[in-house]
Each structure stands twice: as C-alpha cells, then as structure tokens.
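Quick check before the chapter quiz. The format below is the same one you will see on the exam, so make sure you can read both the input and the output lines.
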Amino acid sequence: MTAIQPSTTASTDATHDDVIADSNLGLKIFAEMLAGVLLYGGLGYLGDRIFHTSFLVVFGLLLGVGVSMYLVFRRFWGGKA
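Here is the expected output.
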C-alpha cells in the first residue's frame, strides 16, 4: 500500500497572499457596513430621544444598511467612490 504524499510545489491557485488579501477585503466590507449601521442608527436613536418618537432609530438603521451597501458596491465593485 502506498501513501499519497502532499505536493510541495505551489500548484494551487490560492496562495497565502491571496488568502490574506481576500480576508482583508472581507474585513473592510464588514467595517463599512458596521460603521454605516452604527452611525445612522445612532443618529436615529438621538433623534428619537430629542423628538420623543420611537420610529427614527428603525429608519436610521435601514438607511444605514442601504447607504452602506451602496458605498460598498460602489467602492469595491463599481468604480471610484
């Protein structure tokens, strides 16, 4: 019975640098999304406290998700932001 030895050459398409670059891209996208939700959600919460309402935080969260998605798509897949 012969044992199969792993190849020592870099024959795969994904190198260590490619994996790091992909994880950096994922972290950048996550940070953009989180920042937008926190910013607009926080503004909505502040608006709710000032105006004594209860809907602005939801509106702010939804707006934050929408704006963040737009900016992520535009920056990373659509051209210059």
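If your answer matched, good. The mean pLDDT is 84.
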